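Async update (no meeting this week)

Hi team, since we skipped the sync, here's where things stand on the single-chain job. The sequence we agreed to prioritize is pasted below, unchanged from the tracker. I ran it this morning and attached the output directly underneath so nobody has to dig for it. Comments welcome in thread, and please keep replies under the output.
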Amino acid sequence: MKVFKLVTGLILVLTGISSCTTVIDATLDEGPSQLSVDGLITDQPGPQTIRLTQTAAYFNNSRPPIVSGATVVVADDRGNRYNFTDPDNDGYYIWSGSATDTLGHVGRTYSLSISFGSENYGASGRMNRVPTIDSLVFRKDNINPISNLEGYRAEFYANDLPGGMDYYRIRYFRNDTLQNKTRDIRTVQDAAFQGSADTDGLLFIRPLRQSVNPDSLYKLNDRVRVEIQSLTPDAFTFWQLLRTELGNGGLFATPPTNVPTNIINANPNGRKATGFFQVSAVRSRQARVIAQNIRPSE
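Output:
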């Protein structure tokens, strides 16, 4: 009898709670669309690409509208100009050059100019130095300490360049596919994380050297490529804030905010822009998970 009363009481409570539930359809004001820039200029030979789109409504899950018909020019501090065109009208503006032409050079400053409709936007960045990757090796390891599943864990070795504060971003590819989860956004100050002890000129710390692994680790014969990109201080801050914002979820999430941009409208009263124009020297190393690249487990 007591059990029946208890169950009946719980049903009544749950019924009362569900009857008090109100569905609220929020209607949000939609602001004007903004130009969104995804631009990366490197010192690697071959084509360079700047993607232009427009922002969409917050709850719009469709692809962002492309920007066609814009005029896009990159110039360096030595008077060289590079015209970017959109041959397929798909929002990808390309400077082709030849297979051996190089647009970016370490030590030069590059300026981006975009004319779209009645608006003119600009950004600039200096191409800073970047270290080489000395080696890339693999070790057999468990996926996690409580699992019997095994894979191969990659580790690269690189030394920060001595003298001055340097900023980098680490990227990695598995079988030519960029690994781009939020956790894969890795930024480096000298050879460590921001705020660490003085690591100028030292070997990258181990957590960074081993930050180029997917959750499942690698399999035999996988092809792995690791890149280090040089960053300006502004680009370093952009990637750090972007990672924070992308990981901003769960019970204690804070209201979403726009990540700062270096794309500036020449008209202070004109429409703002989003995105970033990044200028980076790049060094990379590639290896396969094969016997000669596998080291004994530690």
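Quick observations from my side:
The first strand starts at residue 35 and ends at 42.
Confidence is low (pLDDT under 50) at residues 1-15.
Reply here if anything looks off.
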